[in-house]
Amino acid sequence: MNKTVENATGQPAMPKPQVVPQQAWEEARQSLLVREKAHTHARDALAAERRRMPWMAVTKEYVFEGPAGRESLLDLFAGRHQLIVYRAFYEPGVHGWPENACRGCSMVADQVAHLSHLNARDTTLVFTSRAPQADIARLKARMGWTMPWYTITDSFDLDFGVDEWHGHNVFFRDGDRLFRTYFINNRGDEQMGGTWNYLDITPLGRQEVWEDSPEGYPQTPTYKWWNWNDSYVEGAAPDQRWVEVSDAGEAAMRSQDASSAR
Fold it and tell me: Which of 165, 161, 171 is nearest to 74 (CA)?
């Protein structure tokens, strides 16, 4: 039976779950792990469906302001094939302006992983707002943010569903032809920030051999492309020592999964 006692503030303390011995705790964890693995597999299946979504051609030209001046949507790809564009609210009328961006958008910015890992998977991430570049530069410097951040100058936000609320739009470049491939907003935006979650919303995915992707999509051996964020070299072969370490780790995880399934 849970006891409710007062804490230091005089308020009722939070009821505590049952406290059990180690064996009972492990049994409870293993029971929950079954459902957690099912959740992971369902997430992977959704990502596979996402990679098979139809694309929408982007025929309108959009212009942004960046640190180097005017840039097109095509320019934002920075030569890569995939582009994720987050619409952050930082502009007159937003709570906190001009010292701060929207609190929610700022939390998203705080969670952005090191972009070198995305770039190594042929993917560019940028933020966009309607604030002038001078304000964006000042805010980034104060908050320690390093992602590319552009100023919206036209109807881009209205055309792609982010004129009133935040969201991530995903685009693919085939030569000079651009396509919108995915859009996520509202609660879905809360999970964004990590390298894997970003890659899972792109049309090419994580590009590892275990993924269920359409025939002909680029894929490389699982884990082998991972590197220190300052050590990626385009076209370099995987480090042999890391291949050995990752192979051993993958084998150990498979063995553990097999044992827990018995």
Answer: 171
In the block, tokens 């051999």 appear at 209
Q: Report if residue 13 sits inside a domain.
A: no
Q: What is the pLDDT of residues 206-254, one digit of tens each?
A: 999 999 999 999 999 999 999 999 999 999 999 999 999 999 988 887 7
Quick check: is 140 in a domain?
Answer: yes
Provide the domain count of the chain: 1
What order of strands is seen across the sheet that includes strand 123-129?
Answer: 56-58, 177-185, 167-174, 82-87, 123-129, 149-152, 63-66, 69-72
Rounded to whole angstroms, the Cα distance separating 192 from 168 reads 9
Contact in structure between 181 and 81 (CB atoms under 8 Å)? no
Answer yes or no: is 257 within a domain: no
237 falls within a domain: no
Single out the residue of 158, 172, 150 nearest to residue 53, CA to CA: 172
* pLDDT digit string, tens, across residues 162-213: 999 999 999 999 999 999 999 999 999 989 999 999 999 999 999 999 999 9
Angle at 47 between CA 44 and CA 48, to 5 degrees: 90
From the number of C-beta atoms within 10 Å of its C-beta (0-12, 13-18, 19+), residue 97 rates as middle
CA distances from 101 to 40, 91, 152 (A): 33, 7, 15
C-alpha 101/C-alpha 143 separation (Å) is 10
Global pTM? 0.92
d(CA 92, CA 39): 41
